[in-house]
């Protein structure tokens, strides 16, 4: 996900997307261990997306308070 796309979402959408990405990351790690993962770079992409979402949520939290 691009930062621009993330910034256009509201907080509830961000939390929902974050939950989806966390479950996807779990599934990717599981498939990596069992040897069924075709694209290991996807793990890196998902981790970066999670970090971006968390960063933007934290920025919004600090700007409100």
Q: How would you describe the overall organization of this protein?
A:
By secondary structure, the chain is mainly alpha-helical. It has a single domain (3-64), classed as Orthogonal Bundle (Helix Hairpins). 83% of the residues lie in helices and 0% in strands. Helix 2 (11-34) runs antiparallel to helix 3 (41-64). The radius of gyration is 14 Å and the shape is elongated.
Can you give me a brief rundown of this structure?
With 65 residues, this protein is mostly helical.
Tag the structure with descriptive keywords.
single chain; about 60 residues; mainly alpha; Helix Hairpins; about 85% helix
Give the CATH topology: Helix Hairpins
Radius of gyration: 14 Å
- If helices are DSSP runs of H or I spanning 4 or more residues, what is the number of helices? 3
Q: What is the CATH C-level name?
A: Mainly Alpha
Count of distinct structural domains: 1
Mean pLDDT, nearest integer?
95
| Major sheet details | none
Strand content: under 5%
CATH architecture: Orthogonal Bundle
Number of strand segments: 0
* SSE series: HHH
| Oligomeric status | single chain
Structural class: mainly alpha
Shape: elongated
Uncertain spans:
none
Helix content: over 70%
What is the distance, rounded to the nearest whole angstrom, between the alpha carbons of the first and last residues? 27 Å
């Amino acid at each position: 996900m691009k930062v621009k796309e993330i910034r256009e979402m509201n907080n509830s959408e961000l939390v929902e997307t974050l939950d989806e990405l966390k479950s996807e990351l779990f599934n990717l790690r599981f498939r990596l261990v069992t040897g069924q993962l075709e694209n290991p770079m996807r793990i890196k992409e998902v981790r970066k997306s999670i970090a971006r979402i968390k960063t933007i949520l934290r920025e919004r939290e600090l700007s409100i308070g």
